[in-house]
């Protein structure tokens, strides 16, 4: 057994307490697995959630009234741009209406899951639901038409249907 004796000074006490605090904070972040940031936004908006499995993603979409095929038509890694152009700014404004914000994920690699929607209120075919996840946390969600002059709307907006106009239709 090795023993070490030292005189406890104020400086050593402060350094020791800071080290213990750092370990507690680090352990808390590790145990939460990055959920601390999500928890603060989840308190503000219920759409922010963790979607670990395909069943979770399908259940999320169905919870907002969207009937989708069980399996995604596409799963791919995407990178959120470091700076947003006008199109990305507009898309992020749509996300903000749902309580989501992509700005904190700029430059990050994320996963995009695309599901075929079977019950869009407009009756249009070729409508997809897109979910963007970062570490299984939902960071963006939309419903869009595959048509070149189609629409993009919030996943929380089931009533839009054929009332939604694209800028070219509204001009």
TrEMBL record:
What region holds the DUF4830 domain?
60-143
- Report the Pfam families cross-referenced here: DUF4830 (PF16112)
PROSITE patterns tied to this protein:
PROKAR_LIPOPROTEIN
> From what superkingdom does this record's organism come?
Bacteria
Tell me the protein's name: DUF4830 domain-containing protein
Origin species? Butyricicoccus pullicaecorum 1.2
């Amino acid at each position: 057994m090795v023993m070490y004796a030292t005189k406890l000074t104020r400086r050593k006490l402060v350094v020791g307490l800071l080290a213990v605090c750092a370990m507690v904070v680090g352990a808390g972040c590790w145990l939460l697995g990055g959920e601390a940031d999500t928890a603060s936004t989840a308190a503000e908006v219920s759409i922010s959630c963790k979607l670990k499995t395909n069943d979770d993603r399908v259940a999320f979409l169905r919870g907002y009234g969207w009937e989708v095929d069980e399996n995604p038509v596409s799963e791919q890694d995407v990178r959120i741009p470091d700076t947003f152009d006008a199109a990305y700014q507009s898309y992020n404004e749509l996300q903000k209406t749902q309580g989501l914000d992509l700005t904190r994920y700029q430059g990050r690699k994320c996963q995009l899951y695309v599901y075929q929607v079977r019950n869009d209120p407009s009756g249009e075919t070729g409508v997809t639901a897109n979910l963007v996840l970062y570490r299984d946390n939902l960071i963006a969600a939309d419903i869009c038409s595959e048509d070149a002059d189609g629409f993009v709307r919030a996943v929380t907006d089931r009533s839009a249907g054929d009332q939604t106009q694209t800028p070219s239709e509204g001009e």
